[in-house]
Amino acid sequence: MDGMTSELVRRRDRWNLPITGRAPAAAEPEQVLGAAAASEPAARTHAVLVCVRLTAATPGSRLLDFLHAEPCAVQAWWIAADIDAVVLLSSPSRTALHRAVGDLRLRGGAEVVAVHGILRPLALPGAGTRAVGA
User: Fold this and answer.
1) Residue 78 domain flag
2) How many CB atoms lie within 10 A of CB 118?
């Protein structure tokens, strides 16, 4: 990227709005996403499981506050292992997921983050009827 492009990228926030907070003019999906992306099903989402280890100085409440404010956060679990938590992030945009993982490091207090993409669910008998930990 040239200097001008990278400056424009840095000046945009998570939802690709100008820093001033004004929403861009309404546009057709083809203009925003490109014709190929607009023809994909609208229900398609991308999801990742993120394994998080917090820094020694980071309280768990900081991660919790971040996750409450993060629109991509779907579910999270405290884990008794080498990691502190597992977080499920989901979004129709891979860019939004990438930014959410980056924010997890910067604002959530994560020291180590391992990201695992979810391809599709496994077909297990009765998978939709049992609660985790029940």
Assistant:
1) yes
2) 13
Assess contact for 91 and 45: CB atoms under 8 A. Answer: yes
Q: State pLDDT tens for residues 48-78.
A: 999 999 999 999 999 999 999 999 999 999 9
* Spatial separation of the C-alpha atoms in residues 74 and 49, rounded to whole Å: 10
In a domain? residue 94: yes
* Beta-sheet strand order (sheet of 73-78): 73-78, 85-91, 46-54, 110-118
In this predicted model, what pLDDT tens digit does every residue of 69-119 receive, in sequence order? 999 999 999 999 899 999 999 999 999 999 999 999 899 999 988 999 999
Q: Is residue 58 part of a domain?
A: yes
- Residue 89 CB neighbour total at 10 angstroms: 25
Residues 60/78, Cβ–Cβ less than 8 Å: yes
How far does Cα 116 stand from its chain's mean position? 12
